[in-house]
Amino acid sequence: MNREEMIRRIESESGPWDLVIVGGGATGLGVAIDGASRGYSTLLLEQSDFAKGTSSRSTKLVHGGVRYLQQGNVSLVLEALKERGLLRRNAPHLVHNLAFVVPNYDWWEGPFYGVGLKLYDLLAGKHGFGPSKNISLEKTLEYIPTIETQGLRGGVIYYDGQFDDSRLAINMAQTAAEQGATVVNYMGVDGLLKSEGFIRGVVARDNESGREYEIAARAVINATGVFADQVRRLDSADAPPMIAPSQGIHIVLDRDFLPGKGAIMVPHTQDGRVLFATPWHNRVVVGTTDTAVTETPLEPLPMAEELDFLLSHTAQYLTKDPKPEDVLSMFAGLRPLVSMGDDENTAAISRDHTIHISASGLVTITGGKWTTYRKMAEDTVDQAAVIAQLDERPCVTKDLNIHGFHRNAVQFGDLAVYGSDARAIRALARQEPAWGEALHPRLTAIAGEVVWAVRHEMARTVEDFLARRTRALLLDARASIAAAPTVAAIMALELNRDAAWRQEQIETYQALAAKYLMVAAP
User: Fold this and answer.
1) Which of 92, 158, 394, 451 could bond 117 through an S-S bridge, CB–CB 3.0 to 4.6 Å?
2) What integer pLDDT is reported at residue 518 of this predicted model?
3) Interatomic CA distance for residues 184 and 210, integer angstroms
4) Per-residue confidence (pLDDT) for residue 344, from 0 to 100
5) 3-54+167-240+352-399 maps to CATH 3.50.50.60
6) What are the extents of the domains in the chain?
7) What is the mean pLDDT of each run of 10 residues along the chain (522 residues)?
C-alpha cells in the first residue's frame, strides 16, 4: 500500500469512478472494501490519516451492546452480536474473547444481571463468545483481584470481544487496496461537482503537494462520521443537521490497577453510561463518559469534569485508587449520533446507522458503531449502486478475511497485531541492527516497525506511527514523546525529507502528545 502509487492511479483514471468515498474511518474503509470486492471501481479520500478521528478512540471493544439490550433495542443487539462473530472470524489476529465481570454489591444485582446476560447469550446464538454465569465471591476475586471487597457478594461473568481499533483500520485499508480500491490519506475534499443538479464528483486537494483534483464519480458517499453535516453542506448550504455529537473519554493506567484475567463492567453509572475497566496491551483502559458537545474538532480534548468522573468511579470499584499522576494517557473521541430531535440525553439517542440520500444524490452513511461497520458498508453500497445505476452485484464481505488474517498470531508476541505480516517485519528488522531495537524501554515497538509503516502502511507523519500504526501515544504518552526524535529520523530517511521536516515533526508531535498527559511533563 503505497501513497505515491495511489496518487498515480487518480491521475491516470480517465473515466468516472463508480464510487468515491469521503472519509477514511471504520465506515468509509468498510464501504471501500465492500465496493471494491464487488468489482466496482472505488476511490477513498481521507482528509487526515486513516482512523484519525473517532475510529482510533473507541473503548477497544467488539460487542453487542449490553446497555442497548437494557434500553430494549433488541434489533441493534442482534445485528451487533452477529457482526461481532463475523469480525472475530475474519480478523482473528486483532479480535479476541475477553471475560467481563459485573460485580454485585446488592442482593438483587446477581439475579437481575444474570437473567439479562443469559438473554444476551441467547441472542448471540452460534456467534456467542462464551456462556454467562453467576460466580461466587471467591471466583470474582480470582478474575478481579483488585476489586473493592467491602459489601461485595459475587459477580456475573460474561464474554465479549476486544480489539485494536486503529490497527484494524489500517488492515482494512490494506484489504480494500488488495481488492482493487484506491485509498489515499491526507487528501481532503473541498467541494462537490454537479451537473444538471446531480452530484458528478468531488474537488479534492492533496494536503502534501497542494495539488487540486477534479474527480468524476457515478456516486459520492459521505462517510465522515461527526463531520457528515459539513460535507452535506457542500451539497446544500442549508442542509439541516443530522449529527448530535457526543464525547466519550478514556484514561489509561498501569496493569497493576487490574492485574487479573478479567475486565470490569459496571452497567449503570450516574450519567447513564456503562463503565468499563479493561486490560489492553498490558495496560488498563477505563471509560467511558457521554457528554453532549456542539463542536467537532479533529483533536477533541477531555473535559475536567469527565476526568473527575472516571477517576472517582474507578476508585469506587478498585482497591487502589488512581490519581492524576497515575494516568499514562487520556484520550477523547466523538460519537456521530443521529439526532432524533431535541433530546439532550445522548445516551438515549440512536446508535443505529442511518443512510440519507439527498436530492442531488449524495449518499450519507452515519451513526452506527465499530462492531457493525461491515453491515453498514453493505447497506451503503446497495443504495449507492442504485444511485449510480451500477450492475447489481452481491456483497461478499461476510466471508472476506481482513489483511493480516492469522488464527494463531499470539505466537508472534509483541508483533501479534500484525498477524501474517509479523514474519516479514521480523525479517525486515534483521536487515539493520538498529531496526531490531526498542524505541523506548516502556514501549514494545521496535525501529523496524517504523520502516514497515512507511513502506507498507502509508504512515506519513510521526503521529501516524506513534498514535495509530502503533498505540504508543495511548499506552504511554510520555514514553512516546521521548521516542519521537528517533521515529522522525527514521521516517525522514524513508520519505526523503530534510532536517527541517524532521524537526517540525518532532515539535508538532510532542505538542500534541502533551495534551494526552493529565499531569504535565516536568
Assistant:
1) 158
2) 92
3) 14
4) 44
5) yes
6) 3-54+167-240+352-399, 84-162+244-346, 410-514
7) 96 94 98 98 98 95 77 77 94 96 84 82 83 92 93 92 97 98 98 95 97 97 96 93 92 95 84 85 92 92 94 91 96 87 45 86 92 95 96 97 97 97 97 95 97 98 98 98 98 97 98 93 62
Phi, psi (5° rounding) for residue 494? Answer: -70, -35
390 DSSP assignment: P
* pLDDT at residue 345, as a whole number: 44
Closest CA to 16 of 217, 220, 193: 217
What secondary structure letter does DSSP report for 93?
A: T
Give dist(CA 381, CA 437) in Å, integer: 44
Return the number of other C-beta atoms located less than 10 Å from residue 56's C-beta: 25
Mention the CATH class of domain 410-514. Answer: mainly alpha
Domain made up of 84-162+244-346: CATH architecture: 2-Layer Sandwich (3.30)
User: Do 251 and 311 form a contact (C-beta atoms < 8 A)?
Assistant: yes
* pLDDT at residue 128, as a whole number: 84
The dihedral through the CA atoms of 73, 75, 79, 82 has a sign that is: positive
**225-249 burial, b if ≥16 CB within 10 A, otherwise e?**
bbbbbebbebbeeebeebbbbbbbb
What's the rounded Cα separation, in Å, for the pair 440 and 288?
29
Give, in degrees to the nearest 5, the angle at Cα 401 between 278 and 407: 60
Query: Which pLDDT score is estimated for 124?
Result: 80
**pLDDT score recorded for residue 346:** 41
Q: Which set of grid coordinates corresponds to residue 7?
A: 496518487
pTM confidence score: 0.94
Say how far apart CA 314 and CA 259 lie, in whole Å: 15
Beta-bridged to residue 220, according to DSSP, are 20
Predicted local confidence at residue 271, as pLDDT: 65
Query: What angle, rounded to 10 degrees, do the helices at 26-37 and 165-178 form?
Result: 20
Q: How far apart are the first and last CA of the chain?
A: 39
The three cell numbers of residue 496 are 526523503
CA distances from 288 to 35, 251, 277, 380 (A): 33, 9, 9, 29
d(CA 337, CA 317): 29
> Are the CB atoms for 271 and 346 separated by under 8 Å?
no
What is the DSSP-derived secondary structure letter of residue 400? P
Distances (CA, A) of 293 to 119, 255, 272, 297, 333: 34, 31, 16, 10, 11
Is residue 132 classed as helix, strand or coil in its secondary structure?
Answer: coil
SS3 sequence of 221-286: EECCHHHHHHHHHHHCCCCCCCECCEEEEEEEEEHHHCCCCCEEEECCCCCCCCEEEEEECCEEEE
- Length of the chain, please? 522
